[in-house]
Design goal:
Layout lengths: L2 H51 L1 H56 L1
């Protein structure tokens, strides 16, 4: 055996090691991906199960939420109406005051 062959052997060994490492890394990555996928699937399944279990509860909650939303909407509408009413009242009062003052002024002028 010449020294060159031993060098070649070392090189090949390193190359094989590198390849093995790469393969291991790939395998690890794949495993990780698989694990992640499995976890996701499990989570989805759990969610589905929970949904199935809590369908009644969810319905109740949804109803409650809807009611709350409706109440909030009603409140908002009421507030808006109140604001509008206030605005209208203000404008009406202003108009009344203007008309009244004009009438008074005209009366004073006539007298």
């Amino acid at each position: 055996m010449s020294p060159h062959s031993s060098d070649d052997m070392i090189l090949t060994k390193t190359a094989v090691m590198m390849m093995m490492m790469m393969m291991m890394m790939m395998m690890m990555m794949m495993m990780m991906m698989m694990m992640m996928m499995m976890m996701m699937m499990m989570m989805m399944m759990m969610m589905m199960m929970m949904m199935m279990m809590m369908m009644m509860m969810m319905m109740m909650l949804m109803m409650m939420m809807m009611m709350m939303m409706m109440m909030m909407m009603m409140m908002m509408m009421m507030m808006m109406m109140m604001m509008m009413m206030m605005w209208f009242m203000k404008s009406a009062v202003l108009l009344l005051m203007l008309t009244y003052s004009r009438e008074r002024l005209s009366k004073i002028v006539i007298q």
